[in-house]
Amino acid sequence: MKWKDVIDYEGLYIVSDTGLVKSVPRKVKRGNxxxxxxxxxxxxxxxxxxxKSVGIYKNNTRKTIRVHTLVxxxxxxxxxxxxxTRHLDGNSxxxxxxxxxxxxxxxxxxxxxxxxxSQRCASWNTKLSIKxxxxxxxxxxxxTCEKRKTxxxxxxxxxxxxxxxxxxxxxxx
Length: 173
Known about the structure:
2 domains
């Protein structure tokens, strides 16, 4: 097991490549006196989606941070603005470094589809599931009447149906 300083909390907290977070033993000022902080493993809270987080302090300010964020940023580096942290095995509680990777929102959504946690991959707010798109692709390109019926059935515009059939949308599928 390897340990590294938590980014922006160097000397205060360390994180392991397995997803454990420790407070570092140190002296802290409370009022006019100096107190010792013993250090040790931090208790991890689990949300309804299985993601774990810890509360950490700096300059008397508490911040709750997800454990996967601490692991990947400390071992890989800070993510770019257009990236998200992906759990490669689909288990949000598995914060091993080997299970984490940066990727786009689309890649993260496609991981969820692959792990059976979602039916939608192209966009988080799409009306269509993968099955819907595959059904739409079976329609004859020249049959305008059938395209209109399909658009009405799925509550999308006929142009959307055309784009799916012509592989201009949902291109990854």
